[in-house]
Amino acid sequence: xxxxxxxxxxxxxxxxxxxxxxxxxxxxxxxxxxxxxxxxxxxxxxxxxxxxxxxxxxxxxxxxxxxxxxxxxxxxxxxxxxxxxxxxxxxxxxxxxxxxxxxxxxxxxxxxxxxxxxxxxxxxxxxxxxxxxxxxxxxxxxxxxxxxxxxxxxxxxxxxxxxxxxxxxxxxxxxxxxxx
Length: 180
What we know:
8 helices, elongated
């Protein structure tokens, strides 16, 4: 029983909760001290913000279509059973967290406030140190060379030092064949 319990990344909190709490705090701060992005042309903010929110909803659906329902970590924190290497995970190791950032930016524009942007650096630091690094350590321990190969080919976010993925490599064929 305790071995199963330790088979998790041990993140400090689910990233959607971190983003939601930060956004809630930012909107509360805006009610106390309003810092508007624009005092005019608010319709443009609503339109761009709405597009970002809709884009996030579509991407959320795509991300979750590639994660097996039994391995969704944020509901009951079950162990990860396999690496997900398809869909948006071919281009970023954390597409869901990027999507949550896009959603936050969309809400920021619709709310017309600077506060979420001002709180963004500590939120991203918390996501990086308290979630992403812990997940990477867990996945490397659990999947070993398979995960290290993935890390070498796919960026943590959308930028960085990883080499461009070559989906014809034997390592990728081996990994994809194992998940079929």
